[in-house]
Each structure stands twice: as C-alpha cells, then as structure tokens.
C-alpha cells in the first residue's frame, strides 16, 4: 500500500478536474484575447471558472478575483504593491506580520526591509497562533498593511481572521490574509470578514499546480506586479492560462461543495490517527484540535528525529513531511515549533501529517501500524547510541548521541 499524507505540500488533481481541463489543451486552445472564434470559444468556460471561485468564497460582484501563477505570486503582489502605493508614494512605512508565515511572505518582507520598510514579526502563543489583541497593540499610524495567514501550513491552526479584520478596519489599515491552507478545508466567507486581499493556490485543493488567485475587496487600487499586455483589465498581464484557470474553478467548486460534511469525514480519520499516535509515550501535538483545519497534525515524538522518521515512513511507502515542503531540504528545526518555544532538539522531532478527502480508512490503519513500529525502531536505535560517559565528578552518567 502507498499512502500520501503530505496534502499541505500539494494534492492529487481530482480526476474530474483533469477531465474538465482536457479540451483546453488541444481543442479550445485559442488565446482568449483574440477576437476570432478560436479565442472566443474559451470565454464561456472562463466565465464559469470565475463564477465558481466567486461562489465558493462568497465574494461580492464589487470585488475582483485576479488569477495569478500561484499564491507566492499573489503574496508578492500584495506586499510589494502596497509598499509601492503606501510607502514609496505615501507616508506609511510599516508592515505587521507574524513569525510563522510562509516563506513567500517572510522573504518578501525581508526584501522590503532592504528597501526601507519597517516590519514587525509578531510572536505566536503556545497554540502557534497570533492573538488579535497582539495585532492591535503593534499597529501604529505608520502601519500600511497587516498580513496574517488564515490557517497554518505547518500546524493547521486557524487564526482569528474575523477579529483581526475588525481591528484593521477600525484602525484604517489594509489587511491581507494568505488563505492557501484554509480554502477547501474550512468554510471561507469573504463577506463575513473585513479583509482587503486574500491569496490562494489551486494545487492545495486538488486543482493543478501553477495557478492561483488574489481576491481584491471592492476592486480597490493595487499597482500591478506584472506589467504588460493589459490582460485581466490590466491588473495582471500575461496570456491567460485557460486550462489551469478552468481547472481551478472546477477544483474550488468540488472542494467547497458540502465542505462541512467532507471536513467531518476527514476530521474523523485525522483524529483516529492522532489518538493512536498519542498512545505512544512522550508524544505531543501542536494546537487544539477544535481550532485546527480538519486534515492536519504536527506531532512531536521525543527522541525521534523528524528526518529519521520520514525516512522510515518513506520505506513503508508513506509520504509525510517535517514541515513546509520548501524548508524540508535544509534539515533545519521546525520553525513553528521554535516559535511556540520548543527547544531546538524538540523542534527537530516534528512530523507533519496532512490528509485529504481521498485518504481512506485502510490507509489510516496501515499508517497507524507502520508509524508505531517506526517509533519503536527509531527509539531503539537512538538508545543503542547511548554511551557511558564519565561526568566531572568521575561518576558515570548516560548520555545520548544524535544520529545525524
Ligand atoms: N506550502 C507546504 O509544504 P505556492 O507554492 O505559491 O503554490 O504556495 C505557497 C504557499 C503560500 N502560503 C502557504 C500558507 C503555503 O502553505 C504555501 C505552500 C507548501 O507547506 C509548500 S512550501
């Protein structure tokens, strides 16, 4: 059996999405900006995809949803353009964000700091989230933008977006949320929150990679990041990626239809897996279950390094991660675990398991059994590395060697 439990990194494209995209590669391949029938033939499907995204997120007709190449582009766009609009051409110079954002936010903030922006990286509480009152206390009259993720890719914890949005509105500050890990997992109603910009990526909800979007409330001004041929009303130039946009529309429709029921089923499997792993000694999970996306577990197994665990799981045909996929090559400690105050040794033990609506009960059974055996194996290796080392006073004390 093969089990994919890294759905926060990316998801399988739903076969129904592939089917919907298919005609737009070799049959309906015209450029939608062309005036001939090859170009206009894709217009109905594009309109449908746009409607599907608006409906799924309950966006209003006054708002804009602009397709991009991914959430990284959407995040860069908002941060860099707010900087241009309000910092370079205005009198504000301050951005508020959190320590636990995705690198596409954090690296952009660092880039903007080099250009003269002041950035506050808010600390998280022991649940790995930023509290709304913390955001309030760091907003000044120089603050141009607050950017806080809707849900964490590492822990699944859902941030208090409604409260933070209300504070930003009251203070007259723009509010952006990276909702990549929320959309398709929990209901996201854009008319129920005060949020100016929202980023999303289709491949996190069983759509294709390489297409995302930015929601812009009330179609407000935002200098384009991509200048060129005035596509999408000049907001984002570049020939429209018709098959992928059509695929994103279908994917978001499928992911949000009956979302409560789908979430309940995923949560049931997630909780069963989590409960079983927690039966092992010295294990803990980051964040309350009730306030987490239904598919995610970030678990720490004392004495078992994350990379060793991944290797063992991979041998058993189980795909998991130690955290964000883009940070997993560098063997660094899990940044969210460090942010909640775990020491470096503990932060190296984090394992992220993320399910999807395609995860089956049989896969969970198999994972539970393999996981428990793996922990036994790895703890045995780690204790066999234990050596006898004389302490200063000459007395012998056990210490552990690490198996990097
Ligand atoms: N997180 C993870 O393993 P792109 O690559 O642009 O489609 O999405 C980037 C992105 C932005 N924001 C959040 C919250 C994300 O989780 C991601 C992607 C993956 O956690 C890959 S690093």
UniProtKB/TrEMBL annotation:
Claim: Acetylation is one of the keywords in the record: no
PROSITE patterns on file: AA_TRANSFER_CLASS_5
Record carries keyword Disulfide bond: no
Coiled coil: 252-283
A single GO BP: cysteine metabolic process
Domain Aminotransferase class V positions: 3-366
Family listed: Belongs to the class-V pyridoxal-phosphate-dependent aminotransferase family. NifS/IscS subfamily.
Job of this protein: Catalyzes the removal of elemental sulfur atoms from cysteine to produce alanine. Seems to participate in the biosynthesis of the nitrogenase metalloclusters by providing the inorganic sulfur required for the Fe-S core formation.
Name of this protein: cysteine desulfurase
Lineage, broadest ranks: Bacteria, Pseudomonadati, Campylobacterota, Epsilonproteobacteria, Campylobacterales
């Amino acid at each position: 059996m093969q089990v994919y439990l890294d759905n926060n990194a990316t998801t399988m494209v739903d076969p129904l999405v592939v089917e919907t995209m298919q005609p737009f590669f070799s049959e309906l391949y015209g450029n939608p900006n062309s005036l001939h029938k090859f170009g206009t033939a894709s217009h109905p499907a594009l309109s449908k995809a746009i409607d599907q995204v608006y409906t799924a997120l309950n966006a209003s007709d006054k708002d804009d949803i602009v397709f991009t190449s991914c959430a990284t582009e959407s995040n860069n766009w908002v941060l860099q353009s707010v900087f241009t609009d309000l910092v370079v051409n205005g009198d504000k110079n301050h951005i508020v964000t959190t320590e636990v954002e995705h690198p596409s936010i954090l690296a952009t903030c660092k880039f903007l700091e080099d250009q003269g922006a002041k950035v506050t990286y808010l600390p998280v509480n022991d649940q790995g989230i930023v509290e709304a009152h913390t955001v309030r206390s760091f907003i000044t009259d120089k603050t141009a933008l607050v950017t806080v993720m809707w849900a964490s890719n590492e822990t699944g914890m859902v941030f208090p977006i409604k409260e933070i949005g209300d504070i930003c509105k009251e203070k007259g500050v723009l509010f952006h949320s990276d909702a990549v890990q929320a959309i398709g997992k929990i209901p996201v109603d854009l008319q129920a929150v005060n949020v100016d910009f929202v980023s999303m990526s289709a491949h996190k909800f069983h759509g294709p990679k390489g297409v995302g979007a930015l929601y812009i409330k009330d179609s407000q001004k935002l200098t384009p990041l991509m200048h060129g041929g005035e596509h999408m009303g000049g907001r984002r130039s570049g020939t429209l990626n018709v098959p992928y946009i059509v695929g994103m529309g279908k994917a978001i429709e499928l992911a949000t239809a009956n979302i409560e029921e789908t979430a309940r089923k995923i949560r049931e499997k997630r909780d069963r897996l989590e409960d079983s792993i927690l039966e092992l000694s010295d294990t803990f999970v980051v964040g309350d279950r009730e306030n987490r996306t239904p598919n995610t577990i970030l678990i720490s197994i004392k004495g078992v390094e994350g990379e060793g665990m991944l290797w063992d799981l991979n041998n058993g045909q189980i795909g998991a991660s130690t955290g964000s996929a883009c940070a997993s090559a560098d063997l660094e400690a899990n940044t969210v675990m460090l942010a909640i105050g775990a020491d470096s040794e503990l932060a190296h033990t984090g394992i992220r398991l993320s399910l999807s609506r395609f995860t089956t009960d049989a896969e969970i059974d198999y994972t539970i059994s393999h996981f428990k055996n793996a922990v036994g194996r790895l703890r045995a290796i780690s204790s066999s590395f234990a050596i006898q080392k004389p302490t200063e006073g000459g007395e012998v004390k056990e210490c552990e060697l690490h198996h990097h």
